[in-house]
Structures are given as structure tokens and as C-alpha cells.
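Entry 14. Structure prediction run on the chain below.
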Amino acid sequence: QLLLVESGGGLVQPGGSLTLSCAASGFSYTYYAIGWFRQAPGKEREGVSCISSSGGFTRYVDSVKGRVTISRDNAKNTVYLQVNSLKPEDTAVYYCAARHFVSTDYCDNSGVDYWGKGTLVTVSS
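Output returned:
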């Protein structure tokens, strides 16, 4: 199994920044691409970003492109999501998830193998 634990959420003013972390432990962390998802109250969970197992390919949903950077440090078994210029509509519980893809240079935000429990980001004055 793979255990994923998110951290770094909190209360941030509009225009501020956060860096979320997804720490992984368990079987063959580098075997998996890692995705970030978010879910606002009353809304469905949506894919935000992902990074391939090699780290050589990343993907971003259009609504965050230019404000978000995903990266991974395989030596620390950790994936980061840096979010800049936060907007109130970014308020959500953010989840990381792991999925294996045949290509080490591909990922998307389709079905996942493992989920973290989430970390809450609140953007408000």
C-alpha cells in the first residue's frame, strides 16, 4: 500500500500563497504519478494538477494554470503544490492521490489508486 498525507493548508488572504505537501510512504513511491484534486463544499471533486512518476511531465487545469506549480522530490518521497495569487474560489479541501501509468512521463487526473485524507485551504479576508 501507499500512504499519502497532505499538509500545508490554512487560512490565507486573497492574493496570498501557500505550498501544500503530499508526503508518501509505503510501496515503491516512484512507481506512481501524483495528482492534486480539490473539492469545495457542495461541489464535485475536480482535478487540479498532476506530475508523472519521472517528474518529467506535468499537467494543470486551465483555471489554475500560471498560478500553480507542481513538483516532486523523490529523495524525500514528497510532492509539492505551490499556489500563488489565491482567490476565494480556490477555497476547498485539497487532496493528493497516486496512480500508476505505464509511461513514466505521463499523467492525468482520471481514476486513482490511493487517496490522502485532504488538507483545507480557506481563502478569505
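The CA atoms of residues 55 and 84 lie 21 Å apart.
Filed with the rest of this week's runs.
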